[in-house]
Amino acid sequence: MTSQNPIFIPGPTNIPEALRKAVDMPTIDHRSPVFGRMLHPALEGVKKVLKTTKGEIFLFPSTGTGGWETAITNTLSAGDKVLAARNGMFSHRWIDMCQRHGLDVTFVETPWGEGIPADRFEEILTADKGHEIRVVLATHNETATGVRSDIAAVRRALDNAKHPAMLFVDGVSSIGSMDFRMDEWGVDVAITGSQKGFMLPPGLAITGFSPKAMEAVESARLPRTFFDIRDMATGYARNGYPYTPPVGLINGLNHAVTMLMDEGLENVFARHNRIASGVRAAVKAWGLELCARRPELYSDTVSAILVPEGFDANKIVSRALETYDMAFGTGLGQVAGKVFRIGHLGSLTDAMALSGLAVAEMVMADEGLPIQLGSGVAAAQDVYRNAAKAAQKKAA
Amino acid sequence: MTSQNPIFIPGPTNIPEALRKAVDMPTIDHRSPVFGRMLHPALEGVKKVLKTTKGEIFLFPSTGTGGWETAITNTLSAGDKVLAARNGMFSHRWIDMCQRHGLDVTFVETPWGEGIPADRFEEILTADKGHEIRVVLATHNETATGVRSDIAAVRRALDNAKHPAMLFVDGVSSIGSMDFRMDEWGVDVAITGSQKGFMLPPGLAITGFSPKAMEAVESARLPRTFFDIRDMATGYARNGYPYTPPVGLINGLNHAVTMLMDEGLENVFARHNRIASGVRAAVKAWGLELCARRPELYSDTVSAILVPEGFDANKIVSRALETYDMAFGTGLGQVAGKVFRIGHLGSLTDAMALSGLAVAEMVMADEGLPIQLGSGVAAAQDVYRNAAKAAQKKAA
Amino acid sequence: MTSQNPIFIPGPTNIPEALRKAVDMPTIDHRSPVFGRMLHPALEGVKKVLKTTKGEIFLFPSTGTGGWETAITNTLSAGDKVLAARNGMFSHRWIDMCQRHGLDVTFVETPWGEGIPADRFEEILTADKGHEIRVVLATHNETATGVRSDIAAVRRALDNAKHPAMLFVDGVSSIGSMDFRMDEWGVDVAITGSQKGFMLPPGLAITGFSPKAMEAVESARLPRTFFDIRDMATGYARNGYPYTPPVGLINGLNHAVTMLMDEGLENVFARHNRIASGVRAAVKAWGLELCARRPELYSDTVSAILVPEGFDANKIVSRALETYDMAFGTGLGQVAGKVFRIGHLGSLTDAMALSGLAVAEMVMADEGLPIQLGSGVAAAQDVYRNAAKAAQKKAA
Amino acid sequence: MTSQNPIFIPGPTNIPEALRKAVDMPTIDHRSPVFGRMLHPALEGVKKVLKTTKGEIFLFPSTGTGGWETAITNTLSAGDKVLAARNGMFSHRWIDMCQRHGLDVTFVETPWGEGIPADRFEEILTADKGHEIRVVLATHNETATGVRSDIAAVRRALDNAKHPAMLFVDGVSSIGSMDFRMDEWGVDVAITGSQKGFMLPPGLAITGFSPKAMEAVESARLPRTFFDIRDMATGYARNGYPYTPPVGLINGLNHAVTMLMDEGLENVFARHNRIASGVRAAVKAWGLELCARRPELYSDTVSAILVPEGFDANKIVSRALETYDMAFGTGLGQVAGKVFRIGHLGSLTDAMALSGLAVAEMVMADEGLPIQLGSGVAAAQDVYRNAAKAAQKKAA
């Protein structure tokens, strides 16, 4: 029923053996002190991954989408103004959620493949003399297009405009895999899930709230109970939850942050960059282009690859699954049929990445794309060999 | 880190080996057809457990509380009137949630240990000539007091009053363990979680919506995105989810319903009744009383046991954990310190139940309660032996 | 397919969760250094459990029986003289193995229920002026009768007789659960398996060879290859095996010895004694007797319980399995039908033991034995409560 | 601690998820009927894999080496004459075992890289007018050299010589992966282990005895107890074992044979041939040669690859492990340092194979071999794409 091949969807990721075992645990009494001994280290660990000392962490049995809902319902009221850019499927969905919750969203329509237009944000924020905009929404890494936006630039836009709006960042497909600096960037709510950089099964929304966001909670009028961080905070203070906690995932999260810290966050980021560089070298060797328009936008967690006119990217994905039992990501929304995606986040080795590239080559050739077999693999091998040599030199 | 003893909290339950393994799976592509082959049988299976052919099932990565929020946000608008009884912690919380979402809750204050006052409901519904009450909320099994209410009687109250209100039932600690008849009782939304009768880890809200409840969805104005069943329905139609589904739990649910059906639902209920009868016989032998006031209120999934004046029920629970590594449930809310609870739901054997009773005896004796060691065990043994003999006769 | 009840056979034991997970591992290259990092700590850990600093440990993918064959084929030649006592099934089988390998066995027929007659051994050894007896065989704990023999006394018999024979001890159902002192008792080969005190699945023969036994290896003429400890020693020196090692079990053994050491060996022995004392108190309360004839012979790992004339012990065991899904041990050999056995070794809690006693009571009552329900449980509860109180006093 | 990469040692193999879970089971009573319900289907399943209806299967907690010892000790006596060829490490070891057990071995020294010289066997057998040779030993697949010998030819040699000697075949690295016809080839003892074609952890010797071999058991004088198939047969007749059986592995074996039969044995063999063909195409593309001298000798389970003069094959293996965390097999014995081995047996996908080839390329390049990156991968991709196309045509 399950394949032995690694998966190359941009999350959920391949789950390391040790995390499989950490999650798979017998039932314990979640009201006993045993639970607190998992929960609190997990919360502290997430802070380290978010690079925050000031933020507070809340974990909901939910998903990244639930994390977004946590962010807005705990801080905003119907009619509140929000600024966003729409440059991919996930920013699109976040805007939609805001509208469904009665928020007043100003959004900058941005080409898919581009990052957040920090300069446009600055103009809009500067123009908002009355400081009516309560929140700026930013998607750090657009999973649909493989575009990483510059959150530090968004912060500068806010600062340059001297605007007090809060900054909420969707880091679902970046946190734990690419550098994320909650405190330094002045992020007020950071959002991710268990199934990406934390390499766990899905089921946890992971959120970080800055002191400023915490202050907004009391005045927020959007109705909420399940996602109310006040109840959650009360629960944490008693080593518990306002309802039944997802014990296994929290135990897994505790182990996952330990695993990330043992490797060293910067090493984790470097590893993602190395794997991604290999994939990008392969794309170039194939004569193809990424959806992300410029190198500084390239994501280290997912590559969305444009297929030439006349080819259907969806067929590449479905053929890979049917013929070689390997899962890649399809294009979503505007780029459906135009891109296929190789997820390269979480726990991945050079060898695993090469197997994905090798299968991608075969499938593209099967679909008639003018791909030279082995060419992408060779380009990636080159990247990985050089990285290994550099690492050995450094170690010596 | 984890005890070898079974747990006796009223959920999450002991997880059968086969369900542990079904949940613990490697990552698959949740957008591939493989996922649909888990999801749809799971949905169909839940229908059988709910005894509905007309209802639609929605599974959220969440908990029973999330299930409640799903029920109200998908069917109601701020200001809508709701009728409830408050006879325990969970009905209390549900009322609180409704109020936080701006609903207008009429509730009948009911002694803890009593069931839902169907006759009072009938009076109130009859008096509501304008049919302003949109929903009647009912908690089938109050986990805090070990009281099972008569949902059929609540339905009769609605029918007698010729009232069109919808009936929402919290079956969190009953469904899958005690008889639940969604269609026959005219339940419009049924709610449970993965971690009780379905014997899985926590992390899934399981809800069933009647056609009438489905109709209410379009006019409902409470904001919702994560819990919006319309998005979920759209997802299911495409074998998917509006966000990342909790694949392992859904695979587990599929196996859990198969397990329940293989045993036979009526046999599952009979087993719960047998185990519970043994526990109740033990309580009687100890000279103690249940919080549930009358036999027809006795829950087959959890027994809340009143400790005599002058003793602290919480100490029984904490001592059991510290001294004998066994988890019972504490009293909640009004009955905190006055009752301790033995959960006996999910997958449990006579032998496991007896080990819980034996430890309860030791702890009560340790705490100075006038308990004769072995007395409760002997009473339960008698129940279990007779049941075994009856079963053998029946088989012969 | 598998029961949730603990098992009460005298091994294999209930496997702790952590050891399940340690054994269940993906394939590694057993010729890589990774394997050595499991193997050597496991070997060192076993030494601690055997209380030997001088001995060498050899682990074979096999069972305790394979351990016996390892002992004799590596040290003896056809026609060599061996002294043994036959006081149970396992000593019986060991003698049979020696005879099938052409050894000349002198054995003292000893009543089942008695221990090794050290005084008779002393007489025989003293009479053996020519020192023709090469080895004395001793079964530390007769699993069939629940009798623990006094190995120190056997050593004294050898010493008193000033006899140079080697001492081989079957510690299969004692090592890791009851005190075993390889060096102090002058044991030359100690033998056990993975599935008893080490709480692992079956599949490993665990042997310890003294320097004197190691010296005997070169002159031993019994043919052997698979069990040849010279090949094994060569392998260990290269972090490997002469054939494919059972990697998971060796990883499990490494974790098991850590678990035993973390608890403290003397605490492990005390726990076994506590659990066993409770079982023995129950037997007394039932008005029954143990097969072991005197308290100093009582085993802390298994109790063989004599059923009154006119009852069939086998029926108790089969009925327990069929009716209550609980596994006890049948009587073997001479005592088949006359005893049933409760295994209480490995990882066991008071609560688990009580569940076994409760079911034993029910089954005996079902079979018509004049047992008062709850009586044995109450007697064991008393033992366990007192032990808990004593432990709390000590900790305070 | 454990890598996420697949392993490419020639066994133990990568273990499929379902078999991991089948082996990892809680303890059951191995004397209860539950065990028989695993054991007997496993035995029947092994017969199908061996293609025997007349043979009897015996499973020992041991390894392939233990299987060899089972074969000779149950059928032969000291001084008995045996004929063998020595064309690799495993045939070498088997001869050594025979000599250590006092057998009189005639062996044909055969170049490593060659198969069994059936014609020489025929000459020797024909010359043995007195029929003193009791057994012909044959290694079906020499794991050290990647050479598959022609067992049917060995049978013809015996038949042509009209010689009544028994034929014992080591099928450790062939059975379950390549065609093996016990009855058709007149194999008298077939031997394998759990960790190769059956895809399980190591720990089981799997043997099949023909009626003729069974007849030899009574007259065999080599001492044996642990490996005595008479005790084992007695055990099986009672649904048990003469000692503690490796329950998890036997449960796993039962699932493994079901898995092989579900795929279809011929499909399993074709899959191994496909994967192996890709590897061989890669070797050719690299400009290297196999140790196996001719195509008809090529093994479908392991390829031993000769490295050019001046390079150390061991360094390739150690560098692969250290740099890319991937395990290949070293050369053994005569070919140590001269070959490295890629194991491709058990459960393997095209994608996994390609990752192994990609890493092999990188390592060889790192070591200075004149390898063009991507060349071997491209050659294998070609093989796998063509095979997939052919399969699709066949299905259509």
TrEMBL record, chains A, B, C, D:
Statement: the UniProt record of this protein carries the keyword GTP-binding: no
Entry annotated with the keyword Disulfide bond: no
Keyword annotations of the record: Aminotransferase, Pyridoxal phosphate, Transferase
A Gene Ontology biological process term: glycine biosynthetic process, by transamination of glyoxylate
Name of this chain's protein: Serine-glyoxylate aminotransferase apoenzyme
Gene3D superfamilies xrefs: Aspartate Aminotransferase, domain 1 (3.90.1150.10), Type I PLP-dependent aspartate aminotransferase-like (Major domain) (3.40.640.10)
Gene Ontology MF terms in the entry: alanine-glyoxylate transaminase activity; L-serine-pyruvate transaminase activity
Necessary cofactors: pyridoxal 5'-phosphate
N6-(pyridoxal phosphate)lysine modified-residue sites: K196
Similarity annotation: Belongs to the class-V pyridoxal-phosphate-dependent aminotransferase family.
InterPro entries, per database record: Aminotrans_V_dom, AspGlyoxATase, PyrdxlP-dep_Trfase, PyrdxlP-dep_Trfase_major, PyrdxlP-dep_Trfase_small, SP_NH2Trfase/AEP_transaminase
Ligand binding (substrate): R341
Domain Aminotransferase class V per the UniProt entry, residue ranges: 39-288
